[in-house]
Amino acid sequence: MPTTMLDQATAMIENAWGQPIEALEVLGVRRPSEDPLLRCAMHTRAALAITDSAVTVHQDRLHALSRRGYVPDFYELDRITETAVKLHVAHAESRAYLQAIRRVVEAREAAAPEVAAPAVRLAQAAVAHSGQTRHAPGAVPEPPSPAAVVGPSAPTTGPRR
Q1: pLDDT digit string (tens) for the chain, length 161 residues
Q2: How many whole angstroms separate alpha carbon 133 and alpha carbon 121?
Q3: Torsions phi, psi for 131 (to 5 deg)
Q4: CA gyration radius for the chain?
Q5: pTM of the model
Q6: Which residue ranges does the record annotate as region Disordered (predicted)?
Q7: What are phi and psi of 105, to 5 degrees?
Q8: Residues 13/105, Cβ–Cβ less than 8 Å
């Protein structure tokens, strides 16, 4: 059986949050303010489940109307075309929902370093502060290096005419 877009979305969400989808559904409902990205992913997945079901319905209908050996009646040609269009639209909606879930997962991954950021900033501040430590009494500090002079260079030849 081929993997559906719903299956792909479920796997993406489970991998990103590290828990089975059933547990994540409970977390998304009970504690929505704790992880708004999870809530967003779960809402989008619910919408994807609906369009995924529509894809299946339209595919089944299209296969029934165009099965081998079946000659559709004249009035069924419009139903075939209409079903094909609806299938195309449902596929497009499913792809959009899957892309939205992918973006939510990417946003979560991008936000993850923010958790470590305060520790990194503290370490950087400590390193910067350690470079400004006072010298022991009687020790001569190194003189600061002279600043580079930046400006136009002097002409090496006489004035131009």
Answers
A1: 568 999 999 999 999 999 999 999 888 777 767 889 999 999 999 999 999 999 999 999 999 988 888 888 888 899 999 999 999 999 999 999 999 999 999 999 998 765 445 555 555 555 555 555 455 555 555 555 554 444 555 555 555 54
A2: 19
A3: -75, -15
A4: 32
A5: 0.64
A6: 127-161
A7: -65, -40
A8: yes
